[in-house]
Write a structure and sequence with these properties.
Blueprint: E1 3-9, H1 12-16, H2 20-35, E2 39-42, E3 47-50, E4 58-61, E5 71-78, H3 82-89, H4 93-96, E6 100-106
Antiparallel strand pairs: 1-5, 1-6, 2-5, 3-4
């Protein structure tokens, strides 16, 4: 079955203004995805890694990309196709709590 990476962006303010029933249903969707084998995690502090010309790793604290919303978490999910992956991602906390979820197909 095809695999997809999801990246969820969201902040506490958006989460807090989302009705409790909607948040509860979104967390149930996360639990359902986990039960289907999805690997889901909350984002921690990122570290950039570079190794120019394989001369040795260099690191820098912080994200490489920037967004108006912080990255909240990641998931690796299975779905029959992109449409099904989008449907699954559309019900998770970041999508319903005034955030956004990117869905990336893995080849």
């Amino acid at each position: 079955m095809p695999m997809f990476i999801t990246i969820g962006y969201g902040d506490q303010a958006g989460y807090d203004r989302t009705p409790q029933a909607v948040r509860d249903a979104a967390h149930e969707q996360d639990a359902k995805l986990r039960s289907e084998g999805a690997l889901i995690g909350i984002a921690g502090a990122p570290v950039q890694v570079r190794n120019p010309d394989a001369a040795g790793p260099e690191t820098r604290d912080g994200p490489f990309m920037s967004s108006t919303l912080p990255i909240a978490g990641f998931a690796v999910i299975e779905a029959a196709d992109l449409a099904e992956a989008v449907q699954k991602a559309s019900q998770v906390p970041c999508a319903v709590a005034h955030g956004v979820v990117e869905v990336w197909p893995l080849d």
